[in-house]
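[audit] Reproducing an earlier prediction to check determinism. Same input, same settings, fresh worker. If the tokens differ from the archived copy the diff job will pick it up downstream; this log only records the rerun itself.
[audit] input (377 residues):
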Amino acid sequence: MPYWRLSGFYFFYFASLGLLLPYWGLYLQWKGFSALEIGEFTAILLVTRVIAPNIWSWIADHRGQRMKIVRLGTFMSALVFSAVLFGDSYLWMAGVMFLFSFFWNATLPQFEVTTLQHLGEHSHHYSKIRIWGSVGFIAIVVVLGVLLEHFDADIIPYTMLISLSAIWLISLSVPESSPSYLSLAHQPIMSIIKRREVLAFLAICFLIQLSHGPYYTFYTIYLEQHHYSRTLIGQLWALGVVAEVIVFLFMHRWLPHYGIRKVLLASLLLSSLRWLLIGLYPDSLALLLFAQLLHAASFGTFHVAAIEWVHQHFTGKNQGRGQGLYSSIGFGAGGAGGSLLSGYLWVSPGPTATFTIAAIAAGLAFIICLRWLKDAH
């Protein structure tokens, strides 16, 4: 198994995400865009995730050679993103974000399948590879947070281009995986999606990512409004992912022991608590620190359990489309909806109400999980 090449891809992919999530809104604000426009740009980044993963997953499931798709997607995303340096009108930025995210969102679901196929029957060890993505995220948010104390936000797109180029270069070294261990039986994808527990799972994924909308779009701006330094803001982002890393070290034991459903239930309940703490107590550093530790639940344990849930329910030739659905319904539709909604609500009724609505969304996902979700057999 090409452990370090797989891990290197995750490192730079999530380093890029560590640039987009905490700092892209800050860059757009520096360029003079309003809160509503920032919410719309973030939604554009995510809305293509509704369509793109399913298109690319269908191609990959029928033609194989997933790494060819990953290499094309990473190259084109770097090429298209470079266009942000040549214009700053609303329409120009919206067009670049749309095209960039179409190719960007082609890559991760196919790489997830490649990683799981390399792992074979040891798929519960996925977190040992994915942990390096968290390390990349931590490294970039801390370093860039310090740099932004001394430089303007115009350094953000240049650092993003460096990271995107590194992803493409590493993708050239990752070999195709052999899916020979998979079941040869093929079920129509719609017959799987129509199952009650699958519909419940997709609804949960939508709601949990919807609840992340105000955090991913406005958390940095929110903390700046409460007079936290950019260095400290970067450290708070990093703390959340450090907690995620610690969780990843133990997930290969927890999943077989507790089962996917119990892990998801705990993740959703703690997510709801996290958004309430951020929304109600922004001036309490102690509570913000605790809320960031809960990122271990709102993303860490949830994501690993969800990846394994999809891996067990979408078997054989449906693996790519299963991961594509998880990405498009959750990170795509849910993430875009959350970003757009938070953009409309941020100024009025305000951040506290916006984070409270996020907590309600996570609470609703908990109820759905409790009532309708079952562990895979």
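[audit] rerun output stored. Observation attached for the diff report: Residues 90-119 form the longest helix (30 residues).
[audit] end
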